[in-house]
Amino acid sequence: MMQRIVRIAIAGALVLTVAGTTNAFAKSGDVIRTGACSGTSDWKLKLSPDNGKIEVEYEVDSNKVGRSWRVRLFENGTRIFAGTRTTLAPSGSFTVRVLAPNPAGRDTFTARATNLSNGEVCGGSASIG
Question: How many CB atoms lie within 10 A of CB 79?
C-alpha cells in the first residue's frame, strides 16, 4: 500500500513538473507574452533576437477554422505589418512572423487583430532590449 502511495505521489510530481514548463522551449533572450482576447480567443506575442534583428511572432488561437482576421504589428509605434490572416486546421489558429529591425535601445512591439466576422479583438504588447 505504501509503495502505491509513493508511486502516485511521484507521478503527480512529474505531471506538475511537465505542466510548469510552458516556456521551457523558449530560447535564451526570448520574450513571450500571452493573453485573452475580447471573446473566446487567446493571443501570444513572442520576440526573439535573430542575427541583429528581432523575430516577431504573433499568434491568435480561436479554435475555429476558416475565420478571417485583420492583423497589424507595430514596432515603437511604426507599423511593420498589416494584412489579413485566416485560421487554419487543425487548431483554428494563425501565426504572423516578421523579421524587424533592431535599433539601439529598448524596442516595444504591439499587435492587434480583429475578427472580421464577429468583431472580436485581440491585442498584445511586449518589449525587448
Answer: 10
